[in-house]
Amino acid sequence: MLHALAKHAHWGLSIDCEGDLYVDDHHTAEDVAIALGQAFKAALGEPRGIKRFGYAYAPLDEALARCVVDISGRPHASVDLGLKREKIGQLSCEMIPHIFESFATSAAITMHVDVLKGFNDHHRAESAFKAAAVALREAVTPTGGSDVPSTKGVLNV
User: Fold this and answer.
1) HSE-up of 104 (CA within 13 Å, CB side)?
2) HEC states along 137-154?
């Protein structure tokens, strides 16, 4: 799923993680998402000359996901994936919304991720990561200017 996120966001990504998987996948998945959010925020720097808002729909066969992001400096995530399986591969399905929440919080962005339709949980999850990737890529697209994209002239970063 992180490979799909990086691929469609056009990020170079290499992750090396040693976690406590002998307990469960919670801390490992959460810590990777936090580190990824921190890296995103650091790479972005001061949000000047970017679109700020991004949205995308991503289909995967019968599944369709939507993601809307705001590079706002205000961390918030609303995630509704409707997953029913216990796991996808070795990842607990309950962790997938938490990955988005942890990323958004540590990146200090607002992120809404919803799966609108689909019955295969793998397709639902993967389409959500792809939609998030494209929405993030759109939000950081340069505008050609150097202004802070806010009516207040400042974003809480």
Assistant:
1) 26
2) HHHCCECCCCCCCCCCCC
CB 147 within 8 A of CB 154: no
Q: What is the pLDDT of residues 93-117, one digit of tens each?
A: 999 999 999 999 999 999 999 999 9
Q: What angle do CA 6, 9, 12 make, to 5 degrees?
A: 45
How far the first Cα of the chain sits from its last, in Å, is 27
Task: Say whether pTM exceeds 0.90.
Answer: yes
User: Crossing angle for the helix pair 121-139 and 95-107, nearest 10 degrees?
Assistant: 10
Helices (H), the chain: 2-9, 26-44, 95-107, 121-139
Pairing label, strands 76-80, 63-70:
unpaired
DSSP 111: E
Q: Which two tokens stand for residue 16?
A: 């090396």
| Neighbour order of strands in the sheet with 63-70 | 53-60, 63-70, 110-117, 76-80
Looking at residue 23, what DSSP letter applies?
T
Of 33, 28, 51, the residue nearest 135 (C-alpha): 51
